[in-house]
Amino acid sequence: MEILYLLVPLAMLIVALMVVIFFWAVRSGQFDDLEGPAHRIIMDDDRPDVSKGDKLEADKDKE
Questions:
Q1: What angle do CA 24, 30, 32 make, to 5 degrees?
Q2: Domain ranges (residues) in the chain
Q3: 12, 19 contact by CB (below 8 A)
Q4: Tally of CA atoms within 13 A in the half-sphere of 32 that contains its CB
Q5: What whole-number distance in Å separates Cα of residue 62 and Cα of residue 57?
Q6: What is the pLDDT of residue 46?
Q7: With 60 as the cut, is the pLDDT of residue 63 above it?
Q8: Which residues of 22-47 are buried (b: 16+ CB within 10 A; e: fewer)?
Q9: What is the CA radius of gyration of the chain?
Q10: What is the pLDDT of residues 35-48, one digit of tens each?
């Protein structure tokens, strides 16, 4: 029974800490856009970028 004198305040402290962390995350914008990053992955441009060096080599091959 004496362990409850330790466990109850410890549990209350942990819950209070979790609430503080949750409100910090909400204020810092962690939950603003949950779907945007998922849509950006799907709509990713699959075409590779062509650098200047590749363009010059491609132009030389055409000639």
A1: 120
A2: 1-44
A3: no
A4: 5
A5: 9
A6: 65
A7: no
A8: eeeeeeeeeeeeeeeeeeeeeeeeee
A9: 28
A10: 887 777 777 666 66
Report yes or no on whether pTM surpasses 0.85: no
* DSSP string for residues in the chain: -TTHHHHHHHHHHHHHHHHHHHHHHHHTTTTS-SSHHHHHHHT---SPPPPHHHHHHHHHHH-
Residues in the chain: 63
Amino acid at 52: K
Per-residue tokens: 34? 């949950």
d(CA 63, CA 61): 6
Query: Rounded CA gap, 16 and 24, in Å?
Result: 12
